[in-house]
Amino acid sequence: MASPEGYSRLQIALHWAVAGLMGLNFVSSDAMKAAWWAVEKGRDAFGNVAMVHVASGILILVLALLRLAVRLGRGAPAASAGTSPMMALAARSMHAALYGAMILIPLAGLVAWFGGVRAMGEVHETLFAVTLGLVGLHVLAAAVHQWVLRDGLLLRMWRAR
Fold it and tell me: What residues does each domain of the chain span?
């Protein structure tokens, strides 16, 4: 399959929707932790913020699966001209890790919360911490492409083609 020139409107919308939801889950994680510990002590402390955390986590999972289906069906743009094989491998690896995280983090959270599996809660938190690093590297790579390499790569996630 030939690589498309850029990302579609749907791919761009899904990218930014998941990014926003991940940010929302980050700011609501303390409330979710508090709800978890309250339930462990036999109290019902599942408030609105914890509900937002669970609902947005489920939505991240659904949107990530949709993103993956669209990516497999439509494809993704090829690496920028002049990209070294090592940089292309790093980009593919980063995207695979991010897709894995978008799927595994919500699954671990669901198993932890609804299955009552404490170890999965630890997996959930650890994966999210690792993912924060991955997202940081992803943003840094986009910035390098935009302001150091000046290859226009960042525009692919802003303008549909």
Answer: 9-157
